[in-house]
Amino acid sequence: MPPPADIVKVAIEWPGAYPKLMEIDQKKPLSAIIKEVCDGWSLANHEYFALQHADSSNFYITEKNRNEIKNGTILRLTTSPAQNAQQLHERIQSSSMDSKLEALKDLASLSRDVTFAQEFINLDGIFLLTQMVESGTERYQKLQKIMKPCFGDMLSFTLTAFVELMDHGIVSWDTFSVAFIKKIASFVNKSGMDTSILQRSLAILESMVLNSHDLYQKVAQEITIGQLIPHLQGTDQEIQTYTIAVINALFLKAPDDRRQEMANILAQKQLRSIILTHVIRAQRAINNEMAHQLYVLQVLTFNLLEDRMMTKMDPQDQAQRDIIFELRRIAFDAEPEPNAGSGSMEKRKSMYTRDYKKLGFINHVNPAMDFTQTPPGMLALDNMLYFAKQHQDAYIRIVLENSSREDKHECPFGRSSIELTKMLCEILKVGELPSETCNDFHPMFFTHDRSFEEFFCICIQLLNKTWKEMRATSEDFNKVMQVVKEQVMRALTTKPSSLDQFKSKLQNLSYTEILKIRQSERMNQEDFQSRPILELKEKIQPEILELIKQQRLNRLVEGTCFRKLNSRRRQDKFWYCRLSPNHKVLHYGDLEESPQGEVPHDSLQDKLPVADIKAVVTGKDCPHMKEKGALKQNKEVLELAFSILYDSNCQLNFIAPDKHEYCIWTDGLNALLGKDMLSDLTRNDLDTLLSMEIKLRLLDLENIQIPDAPPPIPKEPSNYDFVYDCN
């Protein structure tokens, strides 16, 4: 007969004694269980003891998390969190340097546990640590020459404990003094600082900036870009990552009127070229966190264009009108004419109108009206002027080439530039906040100080080339723009390392090549619409949907690693969730690091019966998306968020690592609840599998035996002389 569900068999350790095997009744109060354990070892004052996991986490068992205990779990009897916090509070104030160091080391480890952290914070532990950092370091520095390793370790453990305690969100960041901020900033500004101290100091500064407007202003006064640059020129990628994270935080929280000024400072300090040399082109792989920070910097840099993108042109503004005059002058080499009589004025207006038509503006009389639509607003005009000045030969060639045509196949430069600028802003999501989960940075945008303008210059020449290849007329304008967008998007997905490489990729994506790709995709997705085929589809669709459902559930059984997002940092916070093989229970729990392969059920502490699930919500309906905080409400995170609602006011919140995993999990959860799978992935899989199944059923397979196993892979040929390289 199986044991009752509330009885858990565990082993309990106590230093100096043999471990005990005992059964824990989950219905009994935790204090009664601890008393029973203490009585077994004849230990008095059971209220001074607690149970904790004996694994690397060492987390305390509480009434809230006791359900995590599973059969076979190894626990440890130890001093209670309150007692431990009290003892450490006293030990870190010891006059003995060795005792102090050991206490701070223990504190740094225990502070990861929220139960201990709450007790230590209740003793004003955070205040004590800040006092030690503010005033104690001077005393340590006097001893630094004779015991430098001890000083470095002591400060490192102090800052580690502080970071871990603050990460629980119990104490507000607004409570810290200017003296503490100055001290942390001094560790960053000082050269030759210990790596672990520097890393934690940068993490603290990033959190201060992201979590408090007042602290942003104070940190901005203490830290300059010039002081951060040397940390990017080292070889430690962790330090480089934290440094870029601080720069991003300062950039993100800067008032609108300060961002452009900050961008100018970054340009003066050659931040872009330093990142390109010491990070992107360094002889080592870029990890996910660094890729994310580079992506954030890329987004924030492009967002500086938003102001110009949303600024309409004032047709009465002479300075703005002069830019259009300059475009005309460069194209047609027209010298400014002196004022003349009314007859000459009419003649000049007629000439201007003719030239503006050649330049491809929609409004020939007053081309300023073309720039009153936002987006792209004045950004389009800025791009056109940059192209005309920096790539003058290409500009003149495109304008004159099209203005001399009389076969209605001319490509309108003005209209094309405006629509192209708008399209490039959409592709790069100019004006949107960076996502907390995206790592999609493009190395080529770090190779030039005016990367967006250069990007435009390459694409406007591509547009003109594609227009000619399509032999397009003005009626085909939207078709050309669609082809150009496809060319640009396909080239970007290859992640070219430079603008020249991007240009080379586009050369291979001619209109003819795009047609071939489309034709190939169309053949792969061919859809037969005759009545017999539709009836066959209807007949086999339930089988295909069941197949997709089983695949989704199998993926849930394999499980997925999710990141925990918080206001301080993204790295080193993971949790894993998977469905039990019988599809009855969801197992989940925290992980120390990103797993390699599947995580066993028994290593995941928490479980949620599928029968208890009330609903699955997505996007803005998720409880964790209704919270206010930095980077919480941006569109990309909303698209990856989903929550499981269970019991009363309980939820399990997710942010999928990507769109594919989001579709897998929302489909799988809906399938468990007996609801339809409505994701884009299901629609695509259904179309693909239906098409394949129909084609298989329509094949003439009479007297042909289909093998059960796939054929063996043939051996490699002895040489490859038969290969012909078309390029």
UniProtKB/TrEMBL annotation:
GO terms for molecular function: SH3 domain binding. Residues 319-492 form the ELMO domain. Keywords: Apoptosis, Cytoplasm, Membrane, Phagocytosis, Phosphoprotein, SH3-binding. Involved in cytoskeletal rearrangements required for phagocytosis of apoptotic cells and cell motility. Acts in association with DOCK1 and CRK. Was initially proposed to be required in complex with DOCK1 to activate Rac Rho small GTPases. May enhance the guanine nucleotide exchange factor (GEF) activity of DOCK1. This is Engulfment and cell motility 1. It is found in: Cytoplasm; Membrane. GO terms for cellular component: cytoplasm; guanyl-nucleotide exchange factor complex; plasma membrane. Its main location: cytoplasm. GO terms for biological process: actin filament organization; apoptotic process; cell motility; phagocytosis. The keyword Ribosomal protein does not apply. It comes from the Eukaryota. Pfam families: ELMO_ARM, ELMO_CED12, PH_12.
